[in-house]
Amino acid sequence: MKRRAAAEAMTLVADGMTLGLGTGSTAAHFIDLLGEAVRNGLSVKGVPTSEDTSRRAEAAGVELIEPDETTVIDLAVDGADEVDARGDLIKGGGGALLREKIVAAVAKRFVVIADASKKVAELGAFPLPVEIDRFAYGLTARRIREALVAQGLPGDIALRHRPDGAAFVTDGGNLVVDCRARRIHEPALLDGALKSIPGVVETGLFLRMAERVIFGTADGVEVLRPPAR
Ligand SMILES: O=C(CO)[C@H](O)[C@H](O)COP(=O)(O)O
Is residue 95 part of a domain? Predict the structure, then answer.
């Protein structure tokens, strides 16, 4: 299903494009397919959203660039952890949310690829990742908890750890707090409240950003085009 979604996104790629390359297992399918196309003569440049993606794209033979003020990203393709009916997303399961959001926000088109299991009626069953600065992170975590409770959500948060027990550190050197909000009724309000906390670097709420979401299903693809708001 992930591969099908990635293959459909490949139909949006044209020669000469600069592409934002997402992170995660679904984005990895896209990068592999892109590598195949490059070997068959396609000429594109990629802006990776994580060190993992950078390594994968390099191995696939995709030319990578360091973006500067003049860079135009024609199309960014990335996965998601949850997608609601409006095309709003939770991302950051892989911890790349900050770079993913920087790239998605500047891209002319941001296209999400996902397997059909990522579709939800309301965001929040997947714990919302929030990237925070390391300095006094306990104080920032406390304020995140308070912000969740103020929105009527459970203040159930956990600092993310790696499988070996060490704190998970993002490519940018920050920490990640996962918020088990369960049902986020007002994602924009929550996003604003979290981002107003000094120490919060970025949230995994990607709201009104996706131009379309391509779901790979058991026998094809389904495309969600977010309604105008
Ligand atoms: O946001 C992400 C990484 O930070 C990924 O896109 C998200 O976690 C989905 O991953 P996968 O495609 O492996 O299900």
Answer: yes
Nearest to 60 by CA among 34, 89, 99: 34
Helices marked H in 61-209: 97-106, 137-150, 187-195
> Tens digit of pLDDT for each residue in 56-98?
999 999 999 999 999 999 999 999 999 999 999 999 999 999 9
Decide if 100 is catalytic.
yes
Cα–Cα distance measured from residue 109 to residue 90, given in angstroms and rounded to the nearest whole number: 18
Place of tokens 């709003």: 88
94 lines ligand 1 (CB under 6 A): yes
CB-ligand 1 contact for 25 (6 Å cutoff): yes
- Residue 45, annotated ligand binder? no
For atom 9 of ligand 1, the residue with the nearest CA is 80
Q: Is the ipTM of this complex over 0.85?
A: yes
Q: Write out the residue range of the structural domain in which residue 160 sits.
A: 128-202
Tokens of 226: 């977010």
